[in-house]
Design a protein that fits this description.
Layout lengths: L13 H9 L3 H23 L2 H18 L9 H18 L18 H7 L11 H13 L3 H12 L4 H8 L3 H19 L3 H4 L8 H13 L2
Keywords: Sigma factor, Transcription, Transcription regulation
Organism: Rugamonas fusca
GO molecular function, one term: sigma factor activity
Length: 223
């Protein structure tokens, strides 16, 4: 893949960006990664619950997407198409059993006792711990504790603000299932966090510049 600087590249619409990536333009591929790094990392982490594992899965997914992007026809949003690849890559990594990752049964129900564990697992904070950073950390921990059947749906719907239709397409499950899991996830989080969920939601699973740079560099080094 050869460098090919393009004027006003950051303003390219997704369909044109995908076409240029398929044509082998390295700058376009770099832009694609930077445009979608945050949302795709969140999707991978919602499955693996481990920062390093999520980064590895995301790099693998980008290489898979690069190999297949010539087949992208803009029938779905580029973000939806990429998310499906990332979800599959994360699930494959979970099945390989690296570190502490567990297989996520996206079309299964919660295991017995998981909902009770969630209700009992809320993290108490001191009264003076109303700072945004602490609330964000508390929310991230609580999301990690969601039953596996609900966690990824919640991340895509609430944090990434995908539509129910888009989440259903990403996870290959009925839209009605997306709705029921999303509302159940919110109910569990309310039980754990009371009125604190919305305060920190915007900053949950922050994606800093160093991680973004590391993932882009790691993928480009593997080309």
């Amino acid at each position: 893949m050869q460098p090919n600087p393009i004027p006003a590249l950051p303003d390219l619409p997704d369909a044109e960006l995908a076409r240029r990536v398929a044509a082998g333009e390295r700058d376009a591929f770099t832009l694609l990664m930077r445009r979608y790094n945050r949302s795709l990392y969140r999707a991978a982490r919602s499955i693996l619950r481990d920062d390093a594992e999520a980064e590895d899965a995301l790099q693998d997914a980008y290489l898979l997407a690069l190999a297949a992007i010539g087949q992208y026809r803009a029938e779905a949003k580029l973000g939806t198409w990429l998310t499906r690849i990332v979800v599959n890559a994360a699930l494959a990594q979970a099945r390989r059993g690296r570190r502490r990752a567990a297989v996520i049964q996206l079309d299964g129900s919660a295991e017995p006792g998981e909902e009770q564990d969630m209700r009992n697992g809320a993290h108490a904070t001191p009264e003076d711990a109303a700072l945004r950073t602490q609330m964000r950390q508390l929310l991230e921990q609580s999301i990690d504790q969601l039953p596996e059947a609900f966690r990824t749906v919640f991340m895509l719907r609430a944090v990434e603000e995908m539509s129910g239709e888009e989440v259903a397409a990403c996870l290959d499950i009925p839209e009605a299932t997306v709705r029921s899991r999303y509302f159940r996830a919110r109910s569990l989080l309310r039980a754990a966090l009371a009125q604190r969920v919305d305060v920190a939601l915007e900053d949950a699973f922050g994606f800093d510049g160093a991680r973004c740079d590391r993932i882009v560099a790691g993928v480009l080094a593997r080309l």
